[in-house]
């Protein structure tokens, strides 16, 4: 075995320096790499952005392998079974009959009652001196979902034995604009000195109203006959009220829509519903677009002619 060589002092310092720096330079890229790997491992899709597709008959790992979710044997696996099939015996719809129906003309409205509105006014969450619209009701959390509009109901009205309203929970007059309103609620508000106006809304128009991009009730069809003078004074608008002026002065971007379906047009033309299109009715004209009112038919037919008998007739 050859003898070991002794290192000189300068060579020893150089060796120790390289041995101490080598591990540090080697671990530096490893730490950077582990950090990047940790970030990549935590990435994921937004919740609800990805739905796993059901793959039937692709092995047990898919969750729907082997029988593909049909079970073992029987009619359900080997053939087709009609809806509401009851195993061959008399179907339930024949035994008990068909109950209920799906009204395709109904709209989903958020209900709000008079007693809740009065409670919000007492708490200072709604200002009764200004018009109460969908925006005020939603921002004050009087309603939690605007849905396709708001319907005003009359809970809080005291009635007698004959179901006639005798007292209301309202303590002050209010001016409210909603999608629809019940007859007892309209009578209670007008008895207190307020006013009710029903206005056509859509989901998109309500969203713009909440974003303050559309005025809650001023539109082209909004005229003086529809009670706009009182609402304009309560809103703080003076002078001639037009849609163009309100949009330019208040900085609104979008206009309110008007109904296009016959059912909606007839509802908001009816003065009994306090519709904002009721001022369009002519004298003795009904709200219907198809049928004429009895007064209109009578006026169109003219006066009734009296029957004249000859002079030689007694009756």
Automatic annotation (TrEMBL):
Superkingdom of source: Eukaryota
Gene Ontology molecular function: any one: structural constituent of ribosome
GO biological process: translation
InterPro entries membership: Ribosomal_uL15 (IPR030878), Ribosomal_uL15/eL18 (IPR021131), Ribosomal_uL15/eL18_sf (IPR036227), Ribosomal_uL15_bac-type (IPR005749)
Large ribosomal subunit protein uL15/eL18 domain ranges (all copies): 111-197
Gene Ontology cellular component terms for the protein in this record: mitochondrial large ribosomal subunit
Alphabetized UniProt keyword annotations: Ribonucleoprotein, Ribosomal protein
Nucleotide-binding among keywords: no
Residue ranges, compositional bias (Basic and acidic residues): 295-308
Region annotation Disordered: where it falls in the sequence: 48-86, 295-315
PANTHER family: 50S RIBOSOMAL PROTEIN L15 (PTHR12934), LARGE RIBOSOMAL SUBUNIT PROTEIN UL15M (PTHR12934:SF11)
Family from the record: Belongs to the universal ribosomal protein uL15 family.
Protein name (database record): Large ribosomal subunit protein uL15/eL18 domain-containing protein
Organism, as annotated: Aspergillus heteromorphus CBS 117.55
UniProt lineage: Eukaryota, Fungi, Dikarya, Ascomycota, Pezizomycotina
């Amino acid at each position: 075995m050859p003898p070991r060589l002794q290192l000189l002092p300068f060579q020893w310092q150089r060796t120790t320096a390289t041995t101490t720096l080598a591990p540090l330079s080697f671990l530096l890229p490893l730490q950077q790499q582990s950090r990047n790997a940790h970030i990549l491992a935590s990435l994921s899709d937004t919740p609800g952005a990805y739905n796993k597709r059901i793959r039937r008959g692709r092995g047990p790992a898919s969750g729907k392998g082997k029988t593909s979710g049909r079970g073992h044997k029987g009619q359900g696996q080997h053939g087709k079974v009609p809806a509401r099939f009851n195993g061959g015996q008399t179907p339930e719809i024949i035994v008990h009959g068909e109950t209920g129906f799906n009204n395709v003309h109904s709209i989903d409205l958020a209900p709000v009652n008079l007693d809740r509105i009065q409670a919000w006014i007492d708490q200072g969450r709604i200002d009764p001196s200004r018009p109460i619209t969908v925006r005020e009701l939603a921002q004050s959390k009087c309603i939690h979902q605007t849905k396709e509009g708001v319907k005003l109901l009359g809970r809080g009205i005291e009635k007698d034995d004959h179901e006639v309203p005798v007292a209301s929970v309202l303590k002050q007059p209010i001016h409210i604009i909603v999608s629809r309103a019940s007859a007892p609620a309209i009578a209670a508000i007008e008895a207190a000195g307020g006013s009710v106006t029903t206005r056509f809304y859509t989901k998109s128009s309500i969203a713009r109203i909440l974003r303050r991009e559309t005025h809650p009730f001023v539109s082209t069809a909004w005229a003086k006959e529809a009670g706009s003078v009182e609402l304009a004074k309560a809103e703080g608008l003076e002078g001639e009220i037009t849609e163009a002026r309100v949009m330019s002065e208040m900085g609104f971007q979008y206009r309110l829509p008007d109904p296009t379906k016959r059912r909606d047009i007839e509802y908001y033309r009816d003065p009994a519903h306090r519709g904002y299109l009721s001022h369009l009715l002519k004298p003795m004209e009904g709200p219907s677009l198809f049928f004429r009112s009895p007064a209109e038919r009578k006026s169109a037919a003219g006066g009734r002619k009296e029957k004249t008998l000859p002079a030689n007739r007694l009756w």
